Amino acid sequence: MQSRRKLRFRLLISFALFGFGLSALFAVASLYVRAKVEDQLVAAALQADVDQAVDKTIENPNQPVVSELVKAWIKSDRTLYKMPLAWQSLSTGVHDMYEADESGRIRHYKLAVRRKDGIIGFIRYDISREDIGKRQLITSLVISVILFSLLSLAIGMWLSRKVLKPVTELARRLRDFRKAGRAEPLAPHFADDEVGELAQALDEYSTRLTAMVERDREFNSDVSHELRTPLAVISSTTELLQGSPDLTDKLRERLKRIERASRQATELIEALLLLSRAERRGPTRGEITEVAKVAADVIESQRPQIRDKPLEVELLQNDAVTVNAPASVLSVALTNLIGNAIKYTLEGCVTVQVEKGRIDIIDTGPGIKPEDAERLFQRGVRGEGAGGSGAGLGLAIVRRLCELYGWDVSMRPRTDANGAIASIVFER
User: CA 251, CA 35: separation in Å to the nearest integer?
Assistant: First the structure.
C-alpha cells in the first residue's frame, strides 16, 4: 500500500532537499574552481621562476642561483649537483611528485623543470600547506551545507504553515458543516486566490448537491404516499375477500399469494425509504426483531417458488437471536437471500439456520465461484443462470442495508457438497 503523507510534510521535504542540493552543488563547484585556479596559478608561477633561474645560469654560468625554491641545477661544466635520479628523465613543464620526507611521511610537491642549452633547472614547491587549507575549506563547506539545509527546513516550515493555513481553514469549515448538518457559503471567508476559487467551486457543488437531495427527498415522500395507498387497498381488499364463505380453496390460495406479495412490496418500500433517510441521518433503532420469526415468514412467502420442484426448505433454530432493527429491513434482506437460494436450487434442500449472532442460508444448488462471491453484491451483477429476470439489484440492496446496521453479509461456495452458503453476521 502506498503511504500517504500530508501536503505540509511534502513541502518540508521539498524545501530541505532543495536547500541541501543547492548548497552541496555550490560547495562542489567552489572546490572544483579553487583546485583548478590554484593549480594553474602555482604551475604558472613555478614555470616562470625556473625559466628565470635557467636564463640567469646561462648568462652567468659561474654565479649560482640563490633561491630556497631551487633544488638543483647543472652548471656550464655539466656537473650535476643534488639532483635525484628520478628527475633526470622529466621533460620541461610542471609535474606532480609524491616523495617521502625525512620522517617517512609522503608529501605532495610541484616540480617545475626547464631544459635549455644543456642546462636543466628544477624548482620544487611543497603544496602540503595548500592541502591543509583545502581540508579546512572542505570542513567549512560541509558545515555551511548543514547550516543552509537547516535554514531551508526552517523556512519550509514557516512557508508551509503560512501557505497551507487557508487550506486547513477550508477543511475545518467543511468538518463543521458535517457536524452542523447544513452547509454555509465558503467563498466569502477566503481571499480571491486559488483557495478562494476552490471554496467557490465547493459552494457551487454544495448548492447542486443540496438541490438534488431535496428533489430526492420530495420524490421519496411522494413515492411513499402514492405506493402505500394502492398497496393498502390491495391488502384490505384481499383480507375482505378471504372472509367470504363461498371461496374455493384455489381462490383462497391465490388471495393469500396476493396478500403476501402486497406485504412484501410494502416492506420493500419501507426498507428503501428507511435506507434513503438513514443514509443521511443514521439508522433507525429501538425496534427489537426476532430473527427466526422473520425467517419463518419469509420462507412461507417464498414457498410458491418451489412449485413442483423436488425441493425442501427447512428452518433450524439453534439459538434465539434478536436484532435492534425494523422487521422490514431484516425481511427484505432475508427475502433476497432465501429467494435466491430457492430460485437457483432445482432439487435437494435449502436450510435456513439461525445460530448465535448469525443466520446462514445453505442450499444444494449449482454453487458459485469463489472469485464471484464478492462481485455478486455489486450493483447490476447477476449470478450465472439468472436468465433475464431481475436487474441485479437485490443483493446490492441487501449489502447497503447490512452496512447501515453494521451487519456482515457474505456468500461463499460449499466445501462439502454442491451449493452455496449466504450468511448475515449480526454480531462482529
Answer: 109
Cell output for 196? 478562494
pTM above 0.85, yes or no: no
Amino acid occupying residue 150:
L
Which pLDDT score, from 0 to 100, does residue 2 have? 40
In angstroms, rounded to a whole number, what is the distance separating the alpha carbons of residues 347 and 249? 27
| CA separation for the pair 36, 142 (Å, rounded) | 20
How far apart CA 359 and CA 316 sit, in angstroms, is 10
One-character DSSP codes across 300-315: HHHGGGTTTSSEEEEE
Residues 6 or more apart in contact with residue 187 via CB below 8 angstroms: 196, 199, 200, 203
| 419 phi-psi bin (left φ>0, alpha ψ -120 to 50, beta other) | left
* Mean pLDDT of each 10-residue bin along the chain, 428 residues long: 58 82 88 85 85 78 55 44 69 84 78 80 76 79 87 82 77 72 72 78 80 71 68 78 79 80 75 65 72 91 84 92 88 89 90 93 90 80 48 71 89 88 88
- To 5 degrees, how large is the angle CA 171–CA 174–CA 175? 90
Query: What's residue 110's pLDDT?
Result: 83
Please provide the DSSP assignment of 233-302 as one string. Answer: HHHHHHHHHHT-TT--HHHHHHHHHHHHHHHHHHHHHHHHHHHHHHHHH------EEEHHHHHHHHHHHH
